Amino acid sequence: MNTHLRRAAVAVAATAMAVSLAACGSAKEAGGDDGSGGGEKKKDGPLTIGLLLPEDQTARYENFDRPLIEKRVKELCSDCEVSYVNAKEDASTQQQQMNSMITKKVDVIILDAVDAKSIAGSVTKADEAGIPVVAYDRLAEGPISAYTSFDNEEVGRVQANALLEELGDKADSGQIVMMNGSPTDPNAAMFKKGAKSVLDGKVKVGKSYDTTGWKPDEANKNMNGALASLGKENIVGVYSANDGMAGGIITALKGAGVDPLPPVTGQDAELAGVQRIVAGEQFMTVYKPFQPEAYTAAEMAVALGRGEDPKAETTVDSATTKGVPATLIKPISVTIDNLEDTVIKDGLYEVEEICTPKYKAACEKAGLL
């Protein structure tokens, strides 16, 4: 793990939902199917935990989620093993990866689904094989044993409220473009629902897109279409569901000669997004402290592998499963005004990482240097 990841893991630790688990101690007696994954569970000894992440386009998965999950598993059980694969945004690949984990007889699976619906059959197979599945970040369908993510509707509300506040009176005089996430990602639907609950009736949505695969080039193409359809002078703001798409959107706006740029939202506090905020190109991002989410997933997985009930703060329902034990983490709005008190203070990035020579003047203006 690189230095800023280690610092982030330490600095955010006070906010993580701690779960008391013995490193490799015995759990309650494992019996038959207890409704949390099916079949007999291991009581002690090493566990093999399958970790399936959806893609490597978004920086968070390889830079934060994977190393943090692996770190926490090792803290809980030094001889436990994490078997990691990445689906690279291909749902059929992820189904094959799930089937491979089942064949290998891993003890528990942490799954961040590419397509929440299409993976349901594989989740059912895992359950039938006695392998509990922790849904990570996205609530997959099928007999899920536990779930952790952020409050995804709140993410959309945070983005929309920030956008409306920045628009002020302009909300009455123009139109916004909504660049939503991938239609196969259930989180995208929740971000959109949360955002619309704030935006509806308060600003006109000129164009709204569901962006295949969360791809920045798709967002760029859609934004160019919106500019051609609506006219650049009529677009007062852009709701972008994440930072990667915000980059494609801003490239399209700049390419069309839009100056000044309208406020553009984002999510994930990616380094490039933070740098665009410093440069005045992107208005805001949503910071989701990755450590609490990653640690919670690891803790749930080890508990389930031991035959214990996972610690959770609430329950959620998917389209197929009711009452899934869940822990949801609150997101944080980040703008230039609180950048120093959030992602920098928490050690997500060092000032030097943000303030490269390209951004030195903007960082000086923002008081970061």
UniProtKB/TrEMBL annotation:
Keyword terms: Signal
GO MF term list: carbohydrate binding
GO cellular component: outer membrane-bounded periplasmic space
Domain Periplasmic binding protein: 49-308
Principal subcellular localisation of the protein: other
Signal sequence range: 1-22
InterPro entries: Bact_Solute-Bind_Prot2, Peripla_BP_I, SBP_2_dom
Highest taxon of source: Bacteria
One Pfam family named in its UniProt record: Peripla_BP_4
Location in or out of the cell: Cell envelope
Protein name: Substrate-binding domain-containing protein
Organism: Streptomyces taklimakanensis
Lineage: Bacteria, Bacillati, Actinomycetota, Actinomycetes, Kitasatosporales
